[in-house]
Write a structure and sequence with these properties.
255 residues; alpha/beta; Spore Coat Polysaccharide Biosynthesis Protein SpsA, Chain A; two-stranded antiparallel sheet
Length: 255
């Protein structure tokens, strides 16, 4: 049995009290094909420590807040696969399912269409294939969203980077750049208004959509373990990390 409800640390009870008056949602986007994973199985359904990747992501949010409302966005031809997972792993937490679109923008918009709540409700959007997100990262993003309207996890760059200009490259100061993660959290009012825009190719994540609509985005600390599973190597690394932490992703590793 895959238990989606875990014992809640005392420290997180304060988080629940803090948010008791504001309903929280998370849209877990799992509509990608994952061609770079070189697998016939979409990467959100690949096994990680014996369970599908997307179940680890769902568990992270339930462990953070058992009352959070979960919306899962899947390709319409994968709905049956999800139903089989629900039965096989005895998933008891309520999960609403929305059909994915041709782009991430359309997939998030599809998930948003299932939310009918007050404008001050908080909505996080999370990549299903980031199964190692910490509860600290989730909490920080939601708290920032309630205070500022947005909360975007970020981690510093460790490698040197260069900017490509025509046929040459130039060194740039890596301290002026960061890597962006999910969940990206917003008030429902901010997010809904932003997703009324027409799609642009420059919309690479929800922060870019919100920013294009004139709303400033606020960064919070992410956790370096919260990387996106893109290649087979990522899957091996994630498996090793889960074994090393014994599944405890409460704190994260970002200073």
């Amino acid at each position: 049995m895959f238990l989606l409800y875990a014992a809640t640390p005392v420290s997180h009870l304060l988080t629940f009290n803090y948010f008791r008056r504001v309903k929280q949602y998370v849209i877990i986007v799992a509509a990608g094909k994952g061609s770079r994973m070189q697998s016939s199985i979409p990467k959100q359904f690949l096994k990680l420590e014996g369970k599908p990747v997307l179940l680890h992501s769902i568990h992270a949010f339930i462990a953070y807040n058992p009352d959070i409302k979960i919306i899962l966005v899947l390709p319409s031809d994968q709905f049956e696969t999800w139903e089989k997972i629900v039965a096989e792993y005895n998933v008891t937490v309520p999960v609403q399912v929305a059909p994915g679109g041709a782009t991430r923008f359309e997939s998030v918009r599809s998930g948003l269409s299932l939310i009918h709540d007050n404008d001050d409700a908080l909505v996080g959007i999370h990549d299903a294939v980031r199964p190692l997100v910490s509860q600290k990262t989730i909490s920080g993003a939601f708290k920032s969203a309630e205070r500022y309207g947005s909360g975007i996890p970020a981690v510093p760059l460790n490698d040197s980077i260069r900017q490509i200009e025509s046929k040459q490259s130039v060194s740039v100061d890596r301290s002026k750049f960061c890597l962006i993660q999910t969940p990206q959290c917003f008030t429902l009012a901010v997010l809904s208004k932003a997703y009324m825009q027409e799609y642009r190719y420059t919309f690479t994540d929800d922060a870019s959509v919100v920013e294009a609509n004139g709303h400033e985005v606020h960064l919070v600390d992410g956790n370096v373990d919260n990387f996106k599973l893109t290649t087979r190597i990522d899957l091996v690394v994630a498996e090793a990390m889960l074994k090393d932490t014994a599944g405890d992703m409460s704190g994260g590793t970002h200073p």
